[in-house]
Automatic annotation (TrEMBL):
Keyword terms: Cell membrane, Membrane, Transmembrane, Transmembrane helix
A GO biological-process term: sodium-dependent phosphate transport
Protein name as annotated: Na/Pi cotransporter family protein
InterPro entries the UniProt entry points to: Na/Pi_transpt (IPR003841)
Membrane topology according to the record: Multi-pass membrane protein
MF terms (GO), sorted A to Z: sodium:phosphate symporter activity
Pfam families (UniProt xref): Na_Pi_cotrans (PF02690)
Top-rank lineage group of the source organism: Bacteria
Amino acid sequence: MIMYIVSASVFGLALLLGGMKLMEVALRQWAGSRLPAALERTTSTPFKGFLAGTFSSALMQSGTAVTVLTIGLVNARLLPLANSFGIILGTNVGTCLTTELMSLRLHRYALPMLAAAFVIWLWTALSGEMRALPALPRRYAPPLRYGSAALAGFGLLLFGFAVLQSVGPTLQTSDMFMDMMTHAESSPVWGLLGGAAITAAVHSSSAVIAMSMGLADGGVMSPATGVAIMLGANVGTCFTGLLASLSGGRGGRFVALAQIVLNISGALLFYPLRGALLAAASWIAPGDPAAQIAHAQTMFNIACSLLALPAAYMLLRRR
């Protein structure tokens, strides 16, 4: 039983991470070359930067990727330091799209998505480099090619969620795991610290939150513990940006530090309020623990970003 639990959990998490990485790479190849210029043009005010960070993170399915890109632009002096703060605020909101989509219970369509993605990708290959079919118009070929790869990544992500969900009944028979969950229930700070540590290790807050959603949906983790893990995951996601900033200049380190301060402050602010956060999420999605965790994450990030937005304007005035 232990071997099945470990192998299924690792396999499900690997599918989540692999799917997210495939989506990120495909969407970056499609839109990434235009993204730096778009960020430069749309960050004249912190609110515009916030919208740009939200949209670009949702588009690329990776707030971490946009944060690292922002650090690079600041280090290259292509983006003013004061204008970068709005982008960082937006990345936390945009990254919620993945978990919100997962809360719609689309995992039942994972295999059809993978099949459709393969057919579309094969069509672009046969009409492109293989030259076995008539060539597609140039303006349609890249979106279809990279869009099919992104769809395949999303299908893998949903399939990984389904695998983690299926482990639930077996985990409920494990006394050791249920003791761990009981301990986490009585001491939510361990959930927060665990979420931060795992996120720092796998470099994906969305994957860690999705894993907690799958376990909550399987009945082996309470939504309250999932919310604590979510708060920790939002802290752990700063680790990648911190690493990316170490080799750059002071501007890049300031961007990474700003993200750390924002996310840690938000987690400390909402940790005592996690019950109210879960109550609001439960009102939106009663009886759906996975959706409650996803909605709690979205509300948490929107609230933190809006609370910190005035600070971005103060920073801009002192520039």
